[in-house]
Amino acid sequence: MSAGLADAKILDEADPVRDFRRRFALPAGVIYLDGNSLGALPAATAPRLARAVETEWGEGLIRSWNDAGWIGAPARVGAKIARLIGAAAHEVIVADSTSVNIFKLLAAAARARPGRRVILTETGNFPTDLYVAAGAADALGLELRAVAPGAVMGTLDSDVACVLLTHVHYKTAARRDMAAVTAKVHAAGALMIWDLSHSAGAVEVDLRGCGADLAVGCGYKFLNGGPGAPAFLFVAEALLASLASPLTGWMGHAAPFDFSDDWRPAAGVGRFLCGTPPMLGLIALESAIDLWLEADRPAVWKKAARLWDLFADAARPLVERHGFELLTPAAAERRGSHIAFTHPNGYAVMHALIARGVIGDFREPDVLRFGLTPLYLSHQDVWRGARTLYEVMESGAWRDAPARAEGRVT
Amino acid sequence: MSAGLADAKILDEADPVRDFRRRFALPAGVIYLDGNSLGALPAATAPRLARAVETEWGEGLIRSWNDAGWIGAPARVGAKIARLIGAAAHEVIVADSTSVNIFKLLAAAARARPGRRVILTETGNFPTDLYVAAGAADALGLELRAVAPGAVMGTLDSDVACVLLTHVHYKTAARRDMAAVTAKVHAAGALMIWDLSHSAGAVEVDLRGCGADLAVGCGYKFLNGGPGAPAFLFVAEALLASLASPLTGWMGHAAPFDFSDDWRPAAGVGRFLCGTPPMLGLIALESAIDLWLEADRPAVWKKAARLWDLFADAARPLVERHGFELLTPAAAERRGSHIAFTHPNGYAVMHALIARGVIGDFREPDVLRFGLTPLYLSHQDVWRGARTLYEVMESGAWRDAPARAEGRVT
């Protein structure tokens, strides 16, 4: 290991956002390197949810839709998330899941480009993106064109209505150049849909600066909104009036409480709401976003890049001696905030590592992922995580891991 | 008032499910007659959610998808709800919102009836049903035929792919004959989609006994799942293999954690899942359903009908002396478990009533609704609620209510 624990300590002492670690309820004896899959629990969230349940629901009952501000939550939390992704407050709402929101935007984008029938996307993407695109193409009479990641831009033609890509890849953490890709897609006359699930909270995102059209993202990864937190959806102001959601539920209506028979979409991005907002999940998400908004975000993202360098440096012997292969691009601007390696015994290695209190995850067929979440990980955590992985390999302890269990999901 | 408080007391003493009232956290000084809109908080739900947040999320982190049974929750809670609606365990899942689930079933039903292009539904239904049907027709190239409630069966023809109706009407509480309607729709060669939002937990529902095809319903009304609780979706076993969801998110995949590029639907009703399950909402809903499953349900539904009779009886002077008009059918088998009246000053009357601690709700343009939830309302509650309404009218207190507030939602 080239960088030592002493170096990590020095980095921690100089860390301008180190105090945020105390704002999370982290279990003792665990180094949590899977916040890219499910973010940790902010300390304020449990009492906030208890109040939502006991006071707002229990005491306020139906009155809380007005009195506790429930009805405004999708727009209010959206406006807060907007500040993390370089959007205007009125361009973002919180609604449904990432999957459902991808469907909405694919349908809306295709309708906004009549005469063009192709949804263009990449193979090897997070599967829900591919599955939803396939299902949308099938249901809406469109054509799905899924090509290798490097071939996407080369197959942009005048048949393409919209391009769906993930900004930071869920497996490799490779990050696309959002401005450059968006510009090329625009030059081809298509609309661009970004999936920010592994970006929001992990790296700086500047949707307005990149001329982005449409985006979705996940509330439960780097944003720490809780398991199955509702997702967010962005529509650039210039496009709003011309886009229609196919999922025209009552919360997207201009006046839902008029209970009229006829659909009339809300003026703003609220037209992409559908059913009644999932308040418990929304309240947990808002609590986490409020914490995010306290942080010096450029400092957070600088720290994220430094944590990555530290892990990569500490992991060099794994590559040199133990058959690990780094999957993530090394240049800071070309990656997100997790680090991924392949190893032929990846499943057993991850199992042994988790048994030692260092939680990363395994993705088929041979990928080990480690989330480097800058709000609640110290440099020492990251160093110790990498060190434990090194020990698992040096000692051969991974050979004792049990056979792969059927039906376990992460 | 014909039935007196003494009669209500006698009914309470004889009530076989009266002990369930203590299993809810009801605010002091309130008679809550709006459980048809947002059900009350079960006492067990707050500690259950605290454990889910602090232990399962906070301590277990990503491991809880396996170790706390999160990943199985949509099917597990669905199987529990199945027992409340006369379905088999494997025919029901919990997912998304009622609105999103209506879209899924409309698209699936239309695909299963190729050559038929019409979605048939009724005007005046809960608006999300109408809006989603209109949006689905528009997006999928179908035709929406929305006719007056009494005209639906008369306009069934060979162009109709599916019929979407609500079992118990959200405003009037009128209940349709599920078996008879389903049989007529089948005879016309179409598929029937029931919205059970105001039925589940309110009245006996026997989906299998009625030969039902497809259904959706709401988790946060009579089921007490909490604000914006996830919804449920039913597909009859015989139809499962032939139906495809248009919202093909990763949780509906046969093997989501294989992360393959190609969509392959789960074998069962799980194919109608979409994104990552909203765990906080699901856990709150499960806690409420577990309480439901403890109750003697035939006794609960018998009590619901008795509460209705009691309110209607106590409200007779309002009809005779104060211009109230009963909207709900009087026959027990033709209604759900709320009671609705029209009154030209309905908004002001409801405002005055709420100010006196009796919470019902107002629906445009002139409807007062009172939910008669049998698990946590006593006969005395219902009698007192009706009595307070009578006093508001007799005293003219409703004339002091402030003018209608813009932007208040219930």
Commentary on this structure:
2 copies of one chain form a homodimer. The first copy, chain A, is an alpha/beta fold and 410 residues long. Chain A has 2 domains: 5-43 and 296-400, Aspartate Aminotransferase, domain 1; 71-294, Type I PLP-dependent aspartate aminotransferase-like (Major domain) (Aspartate Aminotransferase, domain 2). Chain A is built from 13 helices and 13 strands. In chain A, the strands form 3 sheets. Chain A has a 7-stranded mixed beta sheet, sandwiched between helices. In chain A, strands 9-10-13-12 form a 4-stranded antiparallel beta sheet, covered by helices on one side. In chain A, helix 1 runs antiparallel to helix 13 (379-395) and helix 2 packs antiparallel against helix 9 (279-294). Chain A is globular. Chain A starts with a helix and ends in a 15-residue tail after the last helix. Chains A and B meet through helix 2, helix 3, helix 5, helix 6 and helix 9 of A and helix 2, helix 3, helix 5, helix 6 and helix 9 of B.
> How does the major sheet of chain A shape up?
7 strands, mixed
- The gross shape of chain A turns out to be globular
Cα-atom Rg of chain A, whole angstroms?
22 Å
Per CATH, the architecture of the largest domain in chain A is 3-Layer(aba) Sandwich
User: Which segments of chain A are poorly predicted (pLDDT under 50) over 5 or more consecutive residues?
Assistant: none
Largest interface: A-B, 96 and 96 residues
Mean pLDDT of chain A: 96
Order of helices and strands of chain A: HEHHHEHEHEEHEEEHHHHEEHEEEH
CATH superfamily of the largest domain in chain A: Type I PLP-dependent aspartate aminotransferase-like (Major domain)
